[in-house]
Amino acid sequence: MTTRSVRIPDDIDALLIKAAQEEHISVNAAVVQAVEEWARMRGHRARVRAVTAQVMAEDAALLDRLADA
């Protein structure tokens, strides 16, 4: 397991502590969950962009016709 030190602004730290308390988890667990969610969402956005680009390329003629309508 890696130990990492991060600087968190005081206002964000207060939100983090409050959220962890409300979830009945440690601040560390809350940070791990937040990073996991961020990484998943980042991957999801990349997949959506790739699929969008694929659709745009495959259906370029149709999209051009729709734009003219």
Automatic annotation (TrEMBL):
Domain of life according to the entry: Bacteria
Family matches, as Gene3D superfamilies: Met repressor-like (1.10.1220.10)
Name this protein carries in UniProt: Toxin-antitoxin system HicB family antitoxin
